[in-house]
UniProtKB/TrEMBL annotation:
Keyword set includes Transmembrane helix: no
PANTHER family: THIOREDOXIN PEROXIDASE, THIOREDOXIN-DEPENDENT PEROXIDE REDUCTASE, MITOCHONDRIAL
Function: Thiol-specific peroxidase that catalyzes the reduction of hydrogen peroxide and organic hydroperoxides to water and alcohols, respectively. Plays a role in cell protection against oxidative stress by detoxifying peroxides.
Active site (UniProt): 49
Protein name: 26 kDa antigen
Keywords attached to this entry: Cytoplasm, Disulfide bond, Oxidoreductase, Peroxidase, Redox-active center
Gene Ontology terms: cellular component: cytosol
């Protein structure tokens, strides 16, 4: 389990948001001002994956406004990533998505994040990495189960709230909601006001 530990670093080939292919994309050099979301998906030119990747790309401003860099990763080559980006959505492509796609041909990155499945593809792992490299949230879905990108945005908000205010975020917390002090009195006070909403 990686939560509370430093995210395994890597340097790999990637296709950047502008379509440029680089051979020295480093995770820690590309963590945003306030963190990163690193997500794995099984394969290019498949079925659930494009819906997730397009959903991340459509919400990129939401992540960027929070200082968060989004990074995708699969075991495909940079050339496959590039070709998929150049394929129109109506033809099964993802279009020119607005974040880097990392090539994990050796499958070592997938192994390091414990998402490699059957030594062949990565499960749908999503990792929220704080600005100091600490993994604060992780979720891994089986191959047929698509992610909720809005939930990852909510988790970014919870991480940033706790970092800023030193309070904890109760169940269903959303940006703008009241936090909770992590004391017996704090829990009692919160529940007295919000128990009916849980």
């Amino acid at each position: 389990m990686l939560v509370t530990k430093k995210a395994p670093d890597f340097t790999a080939t990637a296709v950047l948001a502008d379509g440029q292919i680089v051979e020295d994309f480093n995770l820690y050099d590309n963590i945003g001002e306030k963190g990163a979301v690193l997500f794995f998906y099984p394969l290019d030119f498949t079925f659930v994956c494009p819906s997730e990747i397009i959903a991340f790309s459509k919400r990129i401003e939401e992540f960027e406004s929070r200082g968060i860099q989004v990074i995708g990763c699969s075991i495909d080559s940079q050339y496959s990533h590039f070709a998929w980006r150049e394929t129109a959505v109506e033809n099964g492509g993802i279009g020119r998505v607005k974040f880097p796609l990392v090539s994990d041909l050796s499958k070592q990155i997938s192994r390091d994040y414990d998402v490699l499945f059957g030594e062949s593809v990565a499960l749908r792992g999503s990792f929220l990495i704080d600005k100091d490299g600490t993994v604060r949230h992780a979720v891994i879905n089986d191959l047929p189960l698509g992610r909720n990108i809005d939930e990852m945005i909510r988790m970014v908000d919870t991480m940033q709230f706790t970092n800023e205010h030193g309070e904890v975020c109760p169940a269903g917390w959303n940006k703008g909601d009241e936090g909770m002090k992590d004391t017996k009195e704090g829990v009692a006070s919160y529940l007295a006001k919000h128990e009916a909403d849980l």
